[in-house]
Design goal:
Blueprint lengths: L1 H10 L3 H19 L5 E6 L5 E6 L5 E7 L2 E6 L6 E2 L10 E5 L5 E5 L6 E3 L2 E2 L5 E3 L4 E4 L6 E5 L1
Parallel strand pairs: 1-12, 4-5
Antiparallel strand pairs: 1-2, 2-3, 4-6, 6-7, 7-10, 8-9, 8-11, 11-12
């Protein structure tokens, strides 16, 4: 996690760094406490940035991570932009891309449990996400749910 914090400090300054550190601390705590079936929700942040909210299985916000323009990887590998400790999520599961326009796309990285958008399996291509889309990474039974707001 320290690599992510160092990267964040290089990219952002002042209040943004404090917010990122707070989010990472909350994420660390969530991982330490175990999350069970966790949900993630994407929201538009300040200055047209995007962020990802980590929600518990009741839909309550546990933490928020700012997403810079460009790629944000989702998976179990330590140090990923969106690190998820969930056995149904692959080590390197999917890629979220935040475009200069503010659009967000997602691409599954050919994982066994796949990525599902609004109940439909994502194929080999990137899919543009719309507000209120529901995305499940790691399968319906125990995966992680993302929701674009």
């Amino acid at each position: 996690m320290s690599d992510i914090k160092e990267k964040a400090e290089e990219i952002y300054s002042g209040e943004r760094v404090a917010n990122i550190k707070k989010s990472l601390s909350s994420l660390d705590q969530s991982i330490a406490n175990g999350r069970g079936n966790t949900m993630l929700g994407l929201v538009e942040g300040r200055d047209s940035e995007r962020s990802i909210e980590i929600l518990d299985h009741h839909g309550q916000v546990k933490s928020e991570i700012l997403l810079p323009i460009g790629e944000a990887h989702i998976g179990r590998i330590s140090g990923l932009e969106v690190e998820i400790s969930n056995c149904f999520v692959s080590r390197l599961h999917a890629v979220l891309t935040v475009h200069d326009s503010g659009d967000v796309t997602i691409r599954d990285l050919d994982t066994p449990n796949g990525t599902i958008i609004n109940g439909h399996q994502l194929n080999d291509t990137s899919e543009k996400l719309q507000p209120s889309d529901t995305i499940v990474v790691g399968g319906i039974e125990g995966g992680v749910t993302l929701r674009l707001k």
